[in-house]
C-alpha cells in the first residue's frame, strides 16, 4: 500500500504539484491593442530603408526593438519621427538661397592699404551657405594676405558676414639698389599704398641685405629703437663701414654702426649733443660705432 501511494504521487506532474501564486504577484495580462502596436512598430523598424545605418535611424531602431516599457512604444515612435522630420527640414532650410553669402551682404572693416576686394576673394566665402562656413578657416586665409596682421570673421543670419581686418603699419621705406620696399616693424613687406612710412632707409650699395634678400634683422631692430628715440627723424642711411648713420638737425653726421644694443648708444648721443650745444663746439661727425665712446671730429 505504501509503495502504490508513492507511485501515484510521483506520477503527478511538477507543475500541478507547485502551489499557485497569489494574484498580487502575477503580472497583469497584456492588452491586445498593446500587442498589436508593439508588433506594428517592430515591423516598421524592420522595413526601414538603407538609411537605417545612419546614427538617427539606428537609434530609432534600437529604441523600438528593445523598449523597456512596451506601453511607451507608440509614444517613442512618434517622438523619433518628429526628430527625423525636424532634422530633414533643417537640412533643407539650410540649403536654401536666403542663407547664401554674397559680396553685397559682406561688410569688410579696417582696410586702408589692403584692397577690400582682395580680402573678400581670399576669404573664399562667395556663394557659400552660411551654415557651412568655418569663420576660423576663413580668417586664416585672410591672414595670409601681405599687409594683414590679423583678421576675424563674424556671421549673422540670414546671410550677413562681417570681416574685421587689422593691417600692419609701415615703419620704413627701404631703398635698396634699384628697388623700394615698405616694411612693417617686424619686417613684413607691405603694399605701397596709403600714407608713406615715417622713416626712409637709403641703402644704395645693398649692404643691409641679408642672404635671403630681406632686410637684416639687426638693422631693423636698430631702426625701431632709433625711431622710438627720435620720432622726428625722417631719413636714415646705411653703409658697409658706417652702419646706420644720419644727418642731425645740429648739422653734424652721426655714425651709429650696426652692432650692440642701440638704446645705450642713443642715450650717450643725446648727452654728447647737449654738451656740444652747451659749449658751442664745432663738430662735423659724431662717431658712435665703438661701444661706450663718442668720438668727435
Strand content: 15-25%
Helix content: 25-40%
Number of helices: 9
Instruction: State the name of the first-level CATH class of the largest domain.
Output: Alpha Beta
What is the secondary structure topology, with strand pairs?
Blueprint: H1 2-10, H2 14-17, H3 32-46, H4 55-65, H5 73-94, E1 106-109, H6 116-123, H7 135-143, E2 148-156, E3 160-167, E4 170-176, E5 179-184, E6 189-190, E7 199-203, H8 217-229, E8 235-239, E9 243-247, E10 253-257, H9 262-278, E11 285-287, E12 295-296
Parallel strand pairs: 1-3, 4-7, 7-8, 10-11
Antiparallel strand pairs: 2-3, 4-5, 5-6, 8-9, 9-10, 11-12
Helix pairs in contact: 3-4, 4-5, 6-7
Q: How would you describe this protein?
A:
This protein is an alpha/beta fold and 297 residues long. The chain has three domains: 32-94, no CATH class; 98-167, Ubiquitin-like (UB roll) (Roll); 170-296, Rossmann fold (3-Layer(aba) Sandwich). Helix content is 36%, strand content 21%. The protein has nine helices and twelve strands. It has helices at 2-10, 14-17, 32-46, 55-65, 73-94, 116-123, 135-143, 217-229, 262-278; strands spanning 106-109, 148-156, 160-167, 170-176, 179-184, 189-190, 199-203, 235-239, 243-247, 253-257, 285-287, 295-296. Strands 6-5-4-7-8-9-10-11-12 form a nine-stranded mixed sheet, covered by helices on one side. Strand 2 (148-156) and strand 3 (160-167) form a beta hairpin. The chain is elongated, with a radius of gyration of 42 Å. The N and C termini lie far apart (148 Å). Mean pLDDT is 81; it is low at 10-16.
Amino acid at each position: 500500500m505504501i509503495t502504490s501511494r508513492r507511485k501515484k504521487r510521483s506520477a503527478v506532474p511538477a507543475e500541478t504539484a507547485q502551489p499557485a501564486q497569489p494574484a498580487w504577484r502575477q503580472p497583469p495580462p497584456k492588452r491586445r491593442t498593446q500587442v498589436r502596436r508593439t508588433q506594428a512598430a517592430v515591423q516598421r523598424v524592420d522595413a526601414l530603408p538603407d538609411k537605417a545605418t545612419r546614427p538617427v535611424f539606428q537609434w530609432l531602431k534600437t529604441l523600438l526593438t528593445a523598449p523597456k516599457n512596451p506601453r511607451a512604444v507608440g509614444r517613442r515612435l512618434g517622438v523619433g519621427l518628429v526628430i527625423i522630420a525636424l532634422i530633414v527640414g533643417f537640412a533643407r532650410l539650410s540649403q536654401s538661397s536666403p542663407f547664401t553669402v554674397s559680396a553685397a551682404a559682406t561688410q569688410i572693416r579696417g582696410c586702408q592699404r589692403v584692397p577690400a576686394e582682395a580680402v573678400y576673394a581670399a576669404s573664399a566665402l562667395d556663394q557659400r551657405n552660411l551654415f557651412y562656413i568655418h569663420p576660423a578657416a576663413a580668417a586664416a586665409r585672410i591672414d595670409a594676405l601681405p599687409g594683414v596682421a590679423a583678421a576675424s570673421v563674424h556671421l549673422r543670419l540670414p546671410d550677413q558676414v562681417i570681416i574685421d581686418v587689422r593691417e600692419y603699419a609701415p615703419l620704413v621705406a627701404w631703398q635698396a639698389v634699384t628697388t623700394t620696399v615698405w616694411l612693417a616693424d617686424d619686417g613684413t613687406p607691405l603694399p605701397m599704398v596709403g600714407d608713406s612710412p615715417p622713416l626712409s632707409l637709403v641703402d644704395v650699395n645693398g649692404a643691409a641685405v641679408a642672404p635671403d634678400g630681406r632686410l637684416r634683422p639687426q638693422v631693423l631692430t636698430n631702426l625701431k629703437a632709433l625711431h622710438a628715440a627720435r620720432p622726428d627723424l625722417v631719413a636714415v642711411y646705411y653703409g658697409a663701414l658706417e652702419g646706420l648713420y644720419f644727418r642731425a638737425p645740429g648739422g653734424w653726421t652721426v655714425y651709429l654702426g650696426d652692432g650692440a644694443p642701440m638704446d645705450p648708444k642713443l642715450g650717450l648721443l643725446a648727452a654728447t649733443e647737449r654738451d656740444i650745444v652747451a659749449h658751442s663746439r664745432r663738430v662735423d661727425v659724431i662717431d658712435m660705432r665703438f661701444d661706450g665712446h663718442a668720438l668727435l671730429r
